């Protein structure tokens, strides 16, 4: 992961971005993109493409393979810059801040955006090559594309999460979706603190608030499908639920089982930490009716 993304972003020329887009586009069809395809896509002459590729390699934004033929691919470093460039061009992001979260499947940055420099976050999905098979089995976003790259898997996961936020906000307490491009989402910053790292003075009240949000979500035809104390934020006004790339529709054949699992995760946490006990059957019935 590049540590100086703002500096590198400012150093990238329009033609270098064009070459990165060419590689990204052709990775849907090639594991390693032939240089001829890059030339055809950009319409630059080969000498100029060679020069640009050399500059991008020095910046550690592309990888080169010469075993069977000369080919190139990008990884998340370049993909991050392509998404960031789109956000900047649209005005969704004006300045990039610090990394505030790193997980197995995402990196989260603070940022400002819009005409009032509103504080936002950028979530960049990281469904990586090592976990691609796992992603394909467990999630229903991939489809049957024959030449699907692992970058495209991250792109689809981001789109799925963005679609969920659009469907839920503002009827459910989730971050406000602002923009989406490639594997990145710009959204409002979750209010409050992570439930897992907070000691609640009124745990019963917050538990009721969480189940209210689950019920509202279910009423819109959606189940989170990965709910835990780590993706629930609590604040004086209530709670906010984040991380939606694994959501399913209530029409899914395993919907009730997965809803019950979400409910059980929340109940188990409150029982462990606050000794609160609720009947999972009663809670489930309340949510689905």
Task: Jot down its keywords.
3-stranded antiparallel sheet; 20% strand; alpha+beta; Phosphorylase Kinase, domain 1; 44% helix; Arc Repressor Mutant, subunit A; Transferase(Phosphotransferase), domain 1; 289 residues; 5-stranded antiparallel sheet; 3 domains
Question: How would you sum up this structure in a few lines?
Answer:
The protein has 289 residues and is an alpha+beta fold.
The percentage of residues in β strands lies in 15-25%
Can you tell me the CATH class of the largest domain?
Answer: Alpha Beta
CATH topology of the largest domain: Phosphorylase Kinase, domain 1
CATH homologous superfamily label of the largest domain: Phosphorylase Kinase, domain 1
**Number of distinct beta strands:** 13
Structural class: alpha+beta
**In terms of per-residue confidence, which ranges show pLDDT below 50 for 5 or more consecutive residues?**
129-138
- Would you tell me the overall average pLDDT? 92
The gyration radius over C-alpha positions equals 22 Å
């Amino acid at each position: 992961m590049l540590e100086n993304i703002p500096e590198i972003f400012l150093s990238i020329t329009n033609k270098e971005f064009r070459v990165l887009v060419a590689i990204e586009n052709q990775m849907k069809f090639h594991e390693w993109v032939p240089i001829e395809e890059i030339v055809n896509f950009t319409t630059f002459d080969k000498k100029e493409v060679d020069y640009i590729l050399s500059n991008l390699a020095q910046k550690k934004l592309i990888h080169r393979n010469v075993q069977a033929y000369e080919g190139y691919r990008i990884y998340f470093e370049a993909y991050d810059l392509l998404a960031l460039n789109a956000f900047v061009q649209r005005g969704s992001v004006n300045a990039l801040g610090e990394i505030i979260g790193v997980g197995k499947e995402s990196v989260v940055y603070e940022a400002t955006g819009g005409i009032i420099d509103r504080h936002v976050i950028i979530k960049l999905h990281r469904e990586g090559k090592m976990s691609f098979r796992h992603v394909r089995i467990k999630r229903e976003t991939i489809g049957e594309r024959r030449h699907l790259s692992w970058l495209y898997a991250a792109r689809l996961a981001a789109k799925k999460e963005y679609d969920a936020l659009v469907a839920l906000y503002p009827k459910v307490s989730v971050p406000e979706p602002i923009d989406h491009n490639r594997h990145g989402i710009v959204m409002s910053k979750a209010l409050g603190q992570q439930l897992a790292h907070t000691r609640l003075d009124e745990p019963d009240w917050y538990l009721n608030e969480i189940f209210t949000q689950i019920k509202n979500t279910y009423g819109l035809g959606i189940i989170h499908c990965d709910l835990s104390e780590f993706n629930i934020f609590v604040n004086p006004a209530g709670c906010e639920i984040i991380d939606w790339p694994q959501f399913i529709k209530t029409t899914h054949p395993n919907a009730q089982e997965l809803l019950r699992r979400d409910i059980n995760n929340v109940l188990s946490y409150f029982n462990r930490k606050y000794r609160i006990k609720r009947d999972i059957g009663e809670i489930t019935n309340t949510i689905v009716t």
